[in-house]
# Entry
Amino acid sequence: MKEENTLNTTENNGLSETGNFIHSYIQDDLGENTNKIHTRFPPEPNGYLHIGHAKSICLNFGLAKLYGGKCNLRFDDTNPTKEDVEYVESIKEDVKWLGFAWEDRLYFASSYFDQFFDIAVDLIKKGKAFVCDLTAEEMREYRGTLQTPGKESPYRNRSVEENLDLFMRMKNGEFKDGEKTLRAKIDMSSPNINMRDPVIYRIAHASHHTTGDKWCIYPMYDFAHPLEDAIENITHSICTMEFEDHRPLYDWVVREAGFKNPPRQIEFARLGLTNTVMSKRKLRALVEDGLVDGWDDPRMPTISGLRRRGYTPESIRDFCERIGVSKANSKVDSGLLEYCIRDDLKGKAKVLMAVLDPLKVVVTNYPEGQVEYVEVENNPVNEEIGKRLVPFTRELYIERSDFMEEPVKKFFRLAPGKEVRFKGAYFLTCTDFVKDENGVVTEVHCTYDPETKCGSGFEGRKVKGTIHWVSADDHVKAEARLYDYMMLDDEETGDLKMNENSLEVLPNVLIEPCVKDAVKGEKFQFMRNGYFCVDTKDTTDDKLVFNRIVSLKSSFKL
Ligand code: ATP
Ligand code: MG
# Structure
C-alpha cells in the first residue's frame, strides 16, 4: 500500500501575528532590523518530540519565518548516557513534518566540545573557575537554602596552576565519576542559588553518540547552553519558565566567555494538556514498560503518535496559534486539540459510510440480484470534492445501535413499523426482525418505497431519521481502533494514571467499496462515527486498519 503524500502547505505557521510579549522584546531589541532575528529549537535527543515541543517549534521557527530571520535546529546532546541517534532521526522527521525548515543549519552541541573546553580553561586562567573535590552530598550541604547563604568550598582558593593541572587530569581520565567537578567561581552568598558556584563540568566515563570515547568530562547544561547560543549567533534564546532563575547564570557565562553580542534569554510557559503526560521521561517509561505500542502509539501526545493517529501538521500549528504564548503556566483542555483537527478535516476529508457494529437488513420487496448505484456527495460542506456512487442491494448492513426492538422515546431510527431514510437511497420501513436462541437480533426485515428515491425530487412525506448503511454484497472489511484519553486523573492521589480502557478494537467494520483505494495515512469522515485515518504501521495489503482520530461531537466549547 502506498504512503500518503505528506508534503504540506504552510499557510498558517503556528504563531499568532497579533502578538505576544515576545514580539515586543524582539522589536525593542532589533528595531528596524527584525529580520536579523536568529532563534533555535534545541531538543535533547533523549526521546521523541511531543505536542509541548510543537509549541516551542512553532514559536522559534514561526518567529524566524514571520520576521524573515533564521532558526537553527540544534541537538543539545551534552548528556551521553540518555541520548541516541534513533531520537535524532525522529526529531528531524517531526520538525520537517510540522512544516518547518532548518535549511543548512543543523547543529550538534557536541561539535562544540573543544570550544567549551577552551572556554573553561580560560575561566580557570581568569580565576573564575576552580576544581572542587566536594561530593555531591557535601555540595548540597554547602549550597545553603533560599533563606541562608551558602558556604565556600574549601577547594575554592586553589591556585590557577593547580586548577589547570587538575582539570587536564580530569579530562585525561585520571579520576572516577563524581570524584571532582569544575565549578564557576561566582558568589556563594548570592540570593540566587544558581549563582552559588555552579558546577560547569562533571566527570562521566560514558560513550557519546557523536564523539564516542573522546571525552570523559561533559559540560553542564547551564554552561553549555548559553555558549551554544552565543557560538551560533542566536539573538533570542527562547526557553521555558523553569529557566527564569537561571538567566543571571546564562548572562554570566556568555559575558565571561567574552561574546560581543550576547543572546537574550526569554522565558515562556510550558504547554500542559488535560489527560496527558508531557515529559519525555514519563513517556519513555510507558514505552519501556510496554503499556503502549511504542512512541508512535496513537494515544501518545508525541508528534509521531499524533501523526499516526491522523492529526495533520496544519491542525497542530493551528492549535499552537490558538493557545498563544504567555508566562503563566496553565493546562489547556485536550478538547481544543480535537477541535483543531475537526476544523481542519471538515472541508477536506471525504465523508463515507462505514458500519462499525454491523446488523443485517433484508429489503424483502427489493429484487434479488439487483444493484443500483446511488449518488452521494463526498463532503456536505465542500462541493468541490464531488460525488461518488454507492451500491444499494437487497441485503445491507446498518449499525446495530440504529435498530431498537422496543424504541425508547425520541428514538428516530429503525424499529418495527418505523420508517427512516437510508442515506442517499430510499425510505425503508421495518416490517419484522429475527432473533437467535440467545435473544440477540440477527436480522431486520424492511420494505423500501420505490417512490422515495433520493434525488428524484420526492417530497411526499418527511422522516425524522437518516441512517448510514453498506451493501452486504459489496463492501470492504477493516479493523477500527477507537481511543479514549490515555491518562485519567487518579481521584485519590491527584496524579495521572493509565486509562485501562483507552483502546477499543472493532474487528469487523464494513465500509463502502470505494475505500479500497485508500492509502496509508489517508483521512476520512465516517458518517456519524467520527474522523478516521488509515493506520500507517499495521495496515498491510491484506488488512486495512483505521485509527479513529476523533469523534464528531465534543463537549468542549471555544
Ligand atoms: P521534557 O521535560 O518533556 O523532557 P525538555 O524540556 O527536557 O522536555 P528538551 O528536549 O530539552 O525537552 O526541549 C527542547 C525545547 O522544547 C526546549 O526549549 C524546551 O523548553 C521546549 N519544551 C519542552 N517541553 C515543552 C512544553 N511542554 N511546552 C513548551 N515547550 C517545551
Ligand atoms: Mg530536558
About this structure: The domain at 351-471 is CATH 2.40.240.10 (Ribosomal Protein L25; Chain P). The first helix runs from residue 21 to 30.
